[in-house]
């Protein structure tokens, strides 16, 4: 008797896939700042590369979950500076 293992991950695109890919492409093709950046008056990014790594990991893991939307919004904010 053989059992087939079903892939539990769906190949269906997730809600933020396009946004995430567009942001990732932008940051791959632009020079990253080396100095601290004030995203807002209260948010200062001291290590842009680490900020990008952590935020992309979070939005990819929680793609479409509105509780994690602020992480995606901060990536957009950084892009628009």
Describe the structure in your own words.
With 81 residues, this protein is mainly α. The protein has a domain of 45 residues. Helices cover 47% and strands 5% of the residues. It has 3 helices and 2 strands; from the N terminus they run H-E-E-H-H. The chain has a two-stranded antiparallel sheet with strand order 1-2. Helix 1 runs parallel beside helix 3 and helix 2 packs antiparallel against helix 3.
Shape type? globular
Helicity level, as a percent range? 40-55%
Share of residues in strands: under 5%
Mean pLDDT: 90
Q: How many β-strand stretches? A: 2
Low-confidence stretches: none
* Main beta-sheet strand count, sense and barrel state: 2 strands, antiparallel
Query: What's the helix-strand series?
Result: HEEHH
H/I helix tally: 3
Neighbour order of strands in the largest sheet: 1-2
* SS class: mainly alpha
What is the distance, rounded to the nearest whole angstrom, between the alpha carbons of the first and last residues? 60 Å
Radius of gyration (Å): 16 Å
